[in-house]
Amino acid sequence: MGLAKTEMFTDLQNEIALFAKVFGHPARVAILQHLFKIDNCACGDLVNEIGLAQPTISQHLKELKHLGLIKGKVEGTSVCYCINPENWTKMKKVMLQFLDQDIPKGDCC
Questions:
Q1: What's phi and psi for 62, nearest 5 deg?
Q2: CA-to-CA dists, residue 13 to 4, 8, 9, angstroms
Q3: What are the backbone angles phi and psi of residue 73, rounded to the nearest 5°?
Q4: Burial 10-35 (b: 16+ CB within 10 A, else e)
Q5: Is residue 97 within a helix (H) or strand (E), and if so which, with residue range?
């Protein structure tokens, strides 16, 4: 059995790719923006706020939670979500280091 494609790359390269995946869909960006805007946990208003069906919102929340950028807690019959500050700070550090690279000064092409 061959290697999985992700095994060909460093842990850092895989981490950057996973973090970048978060921003690969505007619904996830909208969810994160909403969570930052309300500065609290969102417990069911995401469907109304974002305008997508509940199963679609749930799938995007699952992706965000899988990457650890949000966390959820059960309140009654619903789950409330908020930004995970530790993992958000880690993601920002990793992505800023990657994006802050300078373009070589030489004429390459």
A1: -60, -45
A2: 14, 10, 6
A3: -135, 145
A4: eeeeebbebbeebeeeebbebbbeeb
A5: helix 85-99
DSSP β-bridge partners for residue 83: 70
- List, in order, residues 6 or more apart from 6 with CB less than 8 Å away: 14
**Residue 85 contacts by C-beta under 8 Å, 6 or more apart in sequence?**
none
Residue that is written with structure tokens 């069911």 in the block: 44
Separation CA 13–CA 98 (nearest Å): 10
**pLDDT digit string, tens, across residues 12-64:** 999 999 999 999 999 999 999 999 998 787 777 888 889 999 899 999 999 99
